[in-house]
Amino acid sequence: MTPRLQLSGIRKAFGATQALGGVSLEVGPGEALAVIGENGAGKSTLMKVLSGAHSPDAGTMLLDGRPYSPADPLEARRCGVAMIYQELNLVQHLTVAENIVLGVEPGRWGWVNRRERRAQAVRVLAELQSGVDPDAPVSALTIAQQQLVEIARALVHEPRVLILDEPTSSLTGVDVEHLFGVLERLRQRGVSLLYISHFLEECQRVCTRFTVLRDGRTVGGGDLASTSLDQVIRWMVGREVKDLYPRTPHEIGAPVLALNALAGREKPRCARFSIRAGEIFGLFGLIGAGRTETLRTVFGLDPVRSGEVQLDGRSETSTTPARRLRAGVALLSEDRKREGLLLNRSIAENLLLTRLHPVSWCGFVRPQAERRTARSWMDQLEVRAQNEHQAIGELSGGNQQKVAFGRLLYHQARVLLLDEPTRGIDVGSKAAIYLRIGQAAAQGRAVVLVSSYIPELLGVCDTIGVMCRGEITAVRPVADWTEHALIAAAIGQSLDIPHA
Amino acid sequence: MTPSSTHLSEWNARLKRLVQIGGPFLGLLLVGLFFALAHDEFGEPARNTVLAARNLKTVLVQTVIVGIGALGMTLVIVAGGIDLSAGSVVACASVFGARLVVAGWPTGGVVLAVIAAGAGVGLLNGTLISVFRLMPFIVTLGSMSIVRGAAKWLGVNQAVSIPRESPVVALMAVNDPDHFLPLPPGVWLMLALGGLTALVLRQSIFGRHIVAVGSNEATARLCGVRVRTTKLAVYALAGLCFGLAGLLQLSRLTQGDPTVAVGLELDMIAAVVIGGASLSGGTGSVLGALVGAFLMALLRNGTSQIGWPNYVQEIIIGLVIILAVGLDKWRQNKRT
After folding, report:
1. Distance CA A156, CA A162 (A)
2. Is residue B306 within 8 Å of residue B40, measured between CB atoms?
3. B212 close to A (CB below 8 A)
4. Cα R_g (chain A), whole angstroms
5. CB contact under 8 A, A342 and B219
6. Distance between CA atoms of residues B45 and B41, nearest Å
7. DSSP letters of B140-175?
8. Are the beta carbons of A334 and A396 closer than 8 angstroms?
9. Other CB atoms closer than 10 Å to residue A226's CB: what's the count?
10. B227 touches chain A (CB under 8 A)
11. B208–A353: do the CB atoms touch at under 8 Å?
12. Does residue B2 lie within any of the structural domains?
């Protein structure tokens, strides 16, 4: 049988950087292949080559046995190779149907045939069993629904190969299950899938075979069922990762932060929990359960409607981030690019911004002191960069996150509010962040860790609370939780599992 | 990453820094070089006229008003905003100052009152922008018209002349036009204020906060920067600069004219952009803005001295601005 897609010796360089140094892979019709690799391993470049955004410098690509070299993404789409990017690419002001046919509108002489457009949209949406209204504006949809629209867009052209880049990064349990169902149906119809993900468990669910990229090369691959995760991770990092969740022994002390029936603008509706010095408190829930909003309300970014936040047993009435920071409470944003960092500014500026006084004199920053402090922190955090003046936007995601997290440590915050601290970063950087969280707890700091990734919560936390519809419904020591129990609590147990 | 690619990207970063810091100087050097080689319509080498010390003095004096305005504009643009009311504030401040001089106010009082009035307009702009969260472009477009109207009302629709003996006139008076020194106090004021502003923007905590707000407001808030106060202060300081520029305008013309300085805000913005600032905020150089202002003044002065028609000047200045923005874009594209 001819493979659906066959790549051999694909190379691509940007300037002196060899992004791809010889990638070969093969996927059959109706087969799902997991493409695994750390950040910077070359996955994104490979996908861009496949989807026509870049053209390779060397190597051959065959689609159903015929040479395949798309000039641009539109041509790739016409050939039946469609791509679902990690970040959603929908036009918020247009309707679902308009988005689905965007760029390939049915019609004549520049006029859109509206009936045909709607019919096409209805057809592909029905295939996905999505229940999304084709006439709804995209801005009114949930993230999960928007992602289905993205997939629907790929289906308009009868795709032969569907490439998915971290499709679950913004979804939670139930929506992920629904997505997997959709992918399984597509596969049965003969669509080949290339599935990129950091979540190895997910790859095992979706795919049968896998291939591992490292430094732009194919370094290994095989059947997922017969390969241990340890082996896969070894291929990815090129070394042994002894323990992904290193635990630093830490003692739990006196209560530091307490939320007393805290309610924000919409969410949280009633958040109640307390954490102690040296405790790592995990907060789990579906997207939209109000976890991020809870952190933001505690930190003073969102207004408090009722209830109170207590620090060291004293009620804190003031609610601005500036005052919270002064009281030793700091927040790591879930959105590094839009909120977490000043992307066009230097590492030093980003690292020291919340606490400039130790490096300044009479309101002026001393360049020497700034440089020295920034350097020593970069060494401690193992940030890989040219120097402390490099713009932070030029670093890899993992290194950016180390700086964003380092800012909280440099601030000497007693309470660390961490919102999805390991989202979208590679395994090596993840382990480094877990280590820092453990060390912070060992120094007596209190940590609130919001995450959608259950193994991480179970591996790192002392206590886990679950949020459901704006309320904290269950708080238990980590030993009393299982993956199953967490999901059950997050969807409110007695409820039926809704579809999208 | 391989060692060679690190090396290359380091070079690239150095080149970028060079363009960022040296860009306006490079432009100035090129313009200087051009006038060093050019001849005017009578065959006289321009280096003896345009680049003569006495003419450079004139160019410096012509730079002062835009230059001081550009200092304030740099703060606003680095903070991610824009102030279109600058030209109107300059005109209004000059009329206001003239009225005060005519009314017999002491010079110190005139200076303080005019600067305070400029800062007051800035404070109003800043309040609307930071407290009521209106778009800076729209707010200052509105105040541009309001302040211009106020200037005409203050001057009863005409220029208010002040006596030539007034100490205010001495601020921009060119004594001994044949020698480079002494420079009028206005020039020294611009240079001193430029140094101060540069120091504040680069090294003070307040300056770091301005940059943070312009680079990413959400991040600034997350990091405990008082975003509203910072913006308010930035617009007020900018207004202060525009007020001062208005005072020097009055000094130079010896009259407060409500119809001058139309479109002057665009010259200031151009100077700031040539100086390496990005209109999306978060980057900008005070020194660059001053060099940008001087560059434009030199181009205007020089091309008219060698007898080029007015329209050629305008075209060249337009090209310089676009070139500066092109460089800025190139710098940002390189950031991957």
Report:
1. 12
2. yes
3. yes
4. 24
5. yes
6. 10
7. HHHHHHHHHHHHHHHTTTS-EE--TTSHHHHTT---
8. no
9. 7
10. no
11. yes
12. no
Nearest to B283 by CA among B20, B10, B105, B8: B20
B288-334, pLDDT tens digit by residue? 999 999 999 999 999 988 888 889 888 988 898 888 778 767 766 65
- Asked whether the bond before A3 is cis by omega within 30 degrees of 0, the reply is no
If one counts the domains in chain B, the total is 1
- Is the separation of the CB atoms in B161 and B241 below 8 Å? no
Question: Which one of A326, A353, A386, A405 makes the best mutation probe of the B interface by having the most chain B beta carbons within 10 Å?
Answer: A353
Closest to B68 (Cα-Cα) out of B257, B233, B195: B195
Using the Cβ of B222 and the Cβ atoms of chain A, whether some distance falls under 8 Å is answered with yes
Query: Does residue B275 sit within a domain?
Result: yes
Q: Do B5 and A349 touch (CB under 8 A)?
A: no
- Residue B10 forms contact with A (CB below 8 Å): yes
Domain residue ranges in chain A: 5-237, 255-490
CB contact under 8 A, A301 and B222: yes
Tell me: the pLDDT tens digits for A116-149?
A: 888 888 988 888 777 788 898 888 888 778 888 8
- CATH number for the domain whose boundaries are A5-237: 3.40.50.300
| Mean pLDDT within A306-310 | 91
CATH number at residue B184: 1.10.3470
Residue A330, strand partner residues: A416
Please check whether residue B170 is in contact with residue B110, taking contact to mean a CB–CB distance below 8 angstroms. no
List of residues 6+ apart from A348 with CB closer than 8 A: A370, A371, A373, A374, A388, A389
Instruction: Report which DSSP code applies to B131.
Output: I
Q: Which fold has domain A255-490?
A: Rossmann fold (3.40.50)
Is residue B21 in a domain? no
Q: How far is it, in rounded angstroms, from Cα A331 to Cα A323?
A: 13
**Among positive and negative, which fits the CA dihedral A213, A217, A218, A220?**
negative
Nearest to B135 by CA among B209, B81, B75: B81
Between strands A192-196 and A32-36, the pairing is parallel
Q: Does a structural domain hold residue B296?
A: yes
The rounded percent of chain B whose pLDDT value lies above 90 is: 67
Nearest to A346 by CA among B212, B81, B157: B212
